[in-house]
Amino acid sequence: MEAMQLGMGIGLLEHAEDLIGDPGATARQLRFLSVQLSAALRDAVRVAERLRERLEGGGKPSDQGL
After folding, report:
1. Which residues are CB-contacts of 29 (< 8 A; sequence separation ≥ 6)?
2. Could you tell me the CA-to-CA distances from 28 to 19, 44, 66 in Å, in that order?
């Protein structure tokens, strides 16, 4: 699940670079992009928090029910 979330975020970043560089991008497209980027960032923070918990707890991912 984490790999999928991060992979989707990477794909979204690539799309964002194209859209931001497009002078014809509309305000609506850019707003939608900002919503999607916010969601991807939220997912990335969750992944990082889970990783920190595993590292601090010294447990393996299988010990955490993942």
Report:
1. 19
2. 12, 24, 38
Name 49's Cβ contacts closer than 8 Å, sequence gap at least 6.
none
Residue 56 token pair: 């601090």
User: pTM value?
Assistant: 0.71
pLDDT digits (tens, 9 = 90+) for 21-57: 999 999 999 999 999 999 999 999 999 999 999 999 8
pLDDT (0 to 100) of residue 59: 57
Q: Which residue has tokens 């980027």?
A: 37
Alpha-carbon span 41 to 38, nearest angstrom: 5
